[in-house]
Design brief:
Length: 268
């Protein structure tokens, strides 16, 4: 399976420290060697880096690791292919436009018999179940709300309803953001940590790297980091219960809802 990494902050922040540990898992300290990608929101713009090569040896990943891009919302993914060949078109995160904003989506899991009817407003380029789910999710949001951007509470409730439907088809851990907030679904496994004052040192699990956040932050900073597996070994991460959808904004969890679906559809 793949691994996910997300960051949601109250001020633009770089993800260099967390990405260093995450990068190592892409073919270095773990088996996720079928490509990687990362997206940074900057205002209404988005920087998207994708590479079908393992992140642990990718020159593009090295560039990102040493390039302190500051963003309030970041989504990253390292891939272990289940559906769709190894290639750029099947590399997460995926990006689409809706309501005049870019949306970013990355998925960890495997969906069985998920063949929703698509009306052509959002069409997959690759062959993954993940991109298909993303296109259907945005299509249904547009159907529900039309051309007007909903307020975030209504948006979260709608994503919750759609997540319930997709989750009936299998494992559906995902990160989704339009740059204003970040939604995270813990279908089976996700953890998060909120870093805020008083800041302390953190040490990566996958590399011998330590940072003292009190040296690189201000007292009012707040950063939420979401990952498939905790990235550090000296901090208290919170396990997100399987079957929960989370709304993060300004570096903190705002709301969570249960997403236990009915019987999962499995291949014959």
């Amino acid at each position: 399976m793949c691994q996910l990494l997300g960051m949601n902050c109250n001020v633009p922040t770089d993800i260099c420290f967390s990405f260093s540990g995450f990068q190592a898992r892409g073919g270095g300290t773990d088996v996720h060697s079928d490509g990687w990608g990362i997206a940074f929101f900057e205002g209404k713009g988005t920087r998207l880096f994708l590479d079908p090569q393992p992140s642990s040896t990718s020159p593009v990943a090295e560039l990102v690791r040493h390039y302190p891009i500051r963003s309030k919302n970041v989504i990253a993914h390292i891939r272990k292919a289940t559906q769709g060949s190894v290639g750029l078109e099947n590399t997460h995160p995926f990006m689409r436009e809706l309501w005049g904003r870019y949306w970013i989506f990355a998925h960890n899991g495997n969906l069985f018999d998920f063949t929703p009817q698509l009306d052509g407003s959002f069409v997959p380029v690759g062959l993954t179940d993940s991109e298909r789910a993303f296109c259907w999710l945005l299509q249904e949001l547009r159907r529900r709300f039309g051309s007007e951007t909903p307020e975030r509470g209504a948006l979260f409730d709608a994503v919750h309803t759609l997540t319930l439907e997709i989750s009936r088809h299998g494992e559906f851990n995902f990160l989704l953001s339009n740059g204003d907030c970040l939604f995270a679904h813990a279908s089976t496994k996700l953890s998060h940590i909120v870093r805020q004052a008083p800041f302390a040192q953190a040490h990566l699990k996958d590399q011998d790297v330590t940072v003292d956040f009190s040296d690189v932050t201000s007292p009012n900073d707040r950063v939420a980091v979401i990952a498939t597996l905790p990235l550090t070994d000296n901090e208290a991460w919170t396990d997100m219960p399987p079957g929960t959808l989370w709304w993060f904004e300004e570096g903190a969890p705002i709301k969570t809802l249960p997403t236990r679906p009915g019987p999962v559809k499995k291949p014959a």
